[in-house]
Amino acid sequence: MEDVLFDLYIAETEIRENSFVFSNDSLRKQQLLNSVFKKHRLSEQTFDTSLVWYNANLEKFMKINGKVTERYTLLIENLQGEQERLKEQSTVRDTTFLYTSPAFLLQPALRSTIHAFRSDTSQLNVLKKYNVELLAMGITDSVKPVLTFCIQCNDTNFIHRDTIAQNGLFAKQYSVPGNRQVESIYGHLHLPPKNEHPVLVGNFVLFQQETTYLPTDSISTTIGKIK
Q1: Which of 7, 137, 152, 175 is the most buried (most CB within 10 A)?
Q2: Could you tell me the pTM of the whole model?
Q3: Secondary structure of 57-125 in the HEC alphabet?
Q4: Where does 94-209 sit in CATH, by number?
Q5: How confident is the model over 65-74, as pLDDT tens digits?
Q6: Beta-strand relationship, 91-101 and 146-153
Q7: What's the angle, vertex CA 12, arms to CA 52 and CA 72, rounded to 5?
Q8: Residue 204 half-sphere exposure, CB side, CA atoms within 13 Å?
Q9: CA 13 and chain centroid, separation
Q10: Kind and range of the H or E element at 16?
Q11: Domain ranges of the chain
């Protein structure tokens, strides 16, 4: 009975995850359930008779059902973990770098407090999403660089300003709403007036990234293969 209930749990999962198919095809649903009975060389009538007996012996049934639930829960957890692993392996990231810079210092003492950048417009793709990443060191409560990021379109400009408030990795994505044509990406990183301490900036990059996923099996499909 434990094995039969376990396989019925699996069949019900497939029916539930593909409700758009089974809701309009009662014959297909019954065929799936019949395949479970056929696997265990059991008729549906015999199964129903057994349930009547277990109804009068609920303690035994609850013990069996508890084992089935544990097996089913473990199966689903393992399948979900495998799906995540396969999804990560099948992720394809196509990165286009629009701007890269060697490490530099923003030095108030030398009046070198601005680092400007401009993208290679020939590399702009249709995604209209732009990522900025950099590593910053030397930031204190009173020394905080500001990133100004400008997206020049054919009809308007979008200007974003973000304060880099802590040391370490800074990452931000900017995008363009609507169907506007992007003509240029530019901006600068600067220290506001009255700052006295230098800030080291490394790995300063501007890029676009297109992420795609190769198809992977759903839980119900994987369960179907197990059966």
Answers
A1: 7
A2: 0.54
A3: CHHHHHHHHHHHHHHHHHHHHHHHHHHHHHHHHCEEEEEEEEEEECCEEEEHHHCECEEEEECCHHHCC
A4: 2.60.120.1300
A5: 899 999 888 8
A6: unpaired
A7: 90
A8: 21
A9: 24
A10: helix 2-17
A11: 2-90, 94-209
